[in-house]
Design a protein that fits this description.
Blueprint (H helix, E strand, L loop, with lengths): L1 E6 L4 E9 L4 E5 L5 E4 L6 E10 L2 E10 L3 E3 L3 E6 L2 E12 L2 E3 L1 E3 L5 E6 L2 E10 L2 E10 L3 E3 L3 E4 L2 E10 L4 E2 L5 E3 L3 E7 L2
Parallel strand pairs: 5-12, 13-20
Antiparallel strand pairs: 1-2, 2-3, 3-4, 5-6, 7-11, 8-9, 9-10, 9-12, 13-14, 15-19, 16-17, 17-18, 17-20
Length: about 190
């Protein structure tokens, strides 16, 4: 097992091989081969309850983290929900009855998330005075670019603007966004 601790010979934190567990542990520096004793703390892996939301449906699952991590809104993790595994983005961190933007894993009671590996993209296609609402299931990394031709729900159109989940609107030609960050794509029939 390789760990990172301070080496008294190298004078800095380097990778070490754990020779004997205990308090203190016996370790060997991978840089200079010096063997010494060091008090080490190996992070413990814990399972934290997670609420995984996907297009209006929420399910309970877990996320595995180490007890020394800090979880923030916007971080991405892998969540286990029964036999399924999802790529998720943190939307809220719960500490008892309170919600926070970030917290240490050992203080968290629940992580609120949304699935980002597969999302429903919503688009509004303007054709003259008529607007068509379009929907399609796409991968979260699918890119939509202002000025380029896109296809949603079987219809092709030129992307004119993109409204992001954080409220920002993208209008500059050549600017783009991934589907997992998009609230709605607007386009015109070309």
């Amino acid at each position: 097992m390789s760990i990172s601790v301070n080496c008294p010979v190298c004078g800095e934190e380097t990778d070490h091989e754990l020779l004997r567990d205990g308090e203190p542990a016996t370790v060997q520096c991978s840089e200079c081969s010096h063997i010494h004793r060091s008090a080490i703390k190996i992070p413990k892996v814990i399972e934290i309850r997670a609420i995984v939301s996907s297009e209006g449906e929420s399910r309970q699952g877990t996320i595995e983290l180490t007890d020394d991590e800090i979880v923030e809104v916007g971080n991405t993790y892998v969540a286990d929900v029964g036999d399924d595994i999802f790529g998720v983005e943190v939307t809220g961190v719960e500490l008892g009855a309170a919600r926070r933007m970030r917290a240490n894993t050992r203080d968290i009671t629940c992580i609120w998330t949304r699935v980002i590996d597969s999302v429903i993209i919503r688009a509004s296609l303007h054709k003259g005075a008529v607007t068509y609402p379009l929907y399609e299931h796409v991968e979260g990394e699918t890119v939509y670019t202002i000025g380029e031709i896109a296809s949603v729900g079987g219809r092709q159109f030129r992307v004119t603007r993109i409204k992001l989940r954080d409220g920002a609107v993208v209008r500059k030609p050549g600017s783009y966004a991934e589907a997992r960050f998009i609230k709605r794509v607007y386009g015109e029939r070309s």
